[in-house]
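User: Predict structure, ligand 2-acetamido-2-deoxy-beta-D-glucopyranose.
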Amino acid sequence: MKLILLFTLCFASSIQLEAQENHPFEHIGTYEASNDNSTKEYFYSGDIYASWMKAMELCELFGMKLLTFDDAKEDENFRKSFVSFFANREAFIYIGANTTQPGSRTEWNWINGEKINFDIKWGEKQPDESSKEEFCLTFDENDPLVYHDMGCKDVLPFVCKESWKIKNIKVKE
Ligand SMILES: *[C@@H]1O[C@H](CO)[C@@H](O)[C@H](O)[C@H]1NC(C)=O
Ligand SMILES: *[C@@H]1O[C@H](CO)[C@@H](O)[C@H](O)[C@H]1NC(C)=O
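Assistant: Predicted complex:
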């Protein structure tokens, strides 16, 4: 009997999947999206701290993206699921969104250019635009995690995400 597996990975090539095994980031969890059967893998940068722009580049270097959420459900799941993981770690974590209007509660864009289309769960008194140049988005360690505006030059840990979908599996005997 011969088994042939044919599959197509939507967002990641097999080369990128191999690279994933070698990257220095810590796998913190998986999310299965029910609307399109895609799988999301989340990775924490751990001891690797970077500016927001550099964090974006580092995720891409390893075939991933700085963390974005496809919808409110994924956002909520992440903020609830990983509270204990982040509890004893660095307080702020970069994710893949920024703004051209610091201080705005709604005008934030994911790194793919799309506007965040759900209610952003800001931390207390956030966004506060305290330094007048808080163009980038972070999570603030809290229960659940909440959003906090931040300068983009701060050197912080970050979360990368890999998104993939097995489109078509055929098993041949
Ligand atoms: C998701 O997977 C289920 C079970 O494999 C299938 O029935 C459903 O059609 C899939 N949905 C999409 C949007 O691909
Ligand atoms: C916001 O992110 C985009 C990439 O998605 C980048 O081109 C732009 O320079 C960023 N803006 C700031 C203020 O960092």
